[in-house]
Design brief:
Blueprint: E1 2-9, H1 13-22, E2 26-33, E3 40-48, H2 53-64, E4 68-77, E5 85-94, E6 97-103
Antiparallel strand pairs: 1-3, 1-6, 2-3, 4-5
Helix pairs in contact: 1-2
Bound molecules: ligand 2BA.
Amino acid sequence: MKLIYAIVRYDNEDEVINALTKKHYSVTKLATTGGFLKKGNTTLLIGTEAERVQEAIDTIKQECGKRQKITINMPYISGSAMINCATMPMTVEVGGATIFVIDVERYEKT
Ligand code: 2BA
């Protein structure tokens, strides 16, 4: 048994969840926040048999699309005082999904 953590963009969550549930995966959706951009994203928990992990990942990839580069204005503090706060353009990649696959030691429903 494996547990997949998939961090996806909020915009993609419905499509991903629908595609996974259609293929009979059980999914739990958590509302999460990225530490870097401080924007809402969605973390999906998917518990499944090891042999079904690749199909789940392929489904997630298909629904989330390719990663894209975007430019954001990051707060930039010059010197030590907040009064000197300005913004600095920075390019980051967004989209796609960040996926972790973890071994499950025990799984039961009571
Ligand atoms: P955020 O932390 O808000 O990161 C948004 C995007 O900013 C990231 O996209 C990445 O392109 C960039 N980024 C993140 N941390 C950075 C840093 N320290 N310096 C420069 N650029 C940085 P993704 O890689 O697609 O990540 C999307 C979201 O997935 C992240 O949102 C975070 O919530 C989660 N995530 C990604 N990698 C993770 C990891 N290794 N552990 C835990 N969560 C992760």
